[in-house]
Amino acid sequence: MDLQMAIVGLGGEGIIFMTRILVEGFYRSGHPVISTETHGMAMRGGSVISQIKIGNYQSPLIRYGEAGMLVGTSEVEAQRNLPFLKKGGTVIMNTKGKGDHCIDATGIAHRLGNPRGGNLVLLGYALAHLAPTTSLEPFLEVTEELSPERFLSGNLRALEEGWQAGLQVDKRRKKGRGVRRHG
Fold it and tell me: Strand 3-10 relative to strand 47-54: parallel, antiparallel, unpaired?
């Protein structure tokens, strides 16, 4: 696999947690992976940008126009970080908007009784867009290891719900409805 991925959001939305799950999950899947985060004022709700490279890379930094996938915890954060996305790259975002690249991860998390689990719904949804190259199993294992006991079952369910929602989009895409891509 060769992918440069940016995860963007605000402090407190679980960007670093998502990154840890992604990095360890890809590593366990046998892929070389490196990452870095920028989270200056994150504790005060400032922007957090996590950059992950899967493949044979020397530096974790993603230059503008090189990310194959941009995952945003909100439409605002996704739009703000569009310069990272390469032409033809995929934007996945947490929004009530319509489109194959949009998922109401917050709404799904609330429906599941896990209001803090929107980040994991979003993560599962993004991972499903990498299927069949990627399996959910290593990411579930990492989530199980990293989640505090009181959040464990909710986190696993949120990740699985996002994955299933993403697979449904993939089925529609194969029937001729394409995923919207930037550029």
Answer: antiparallel
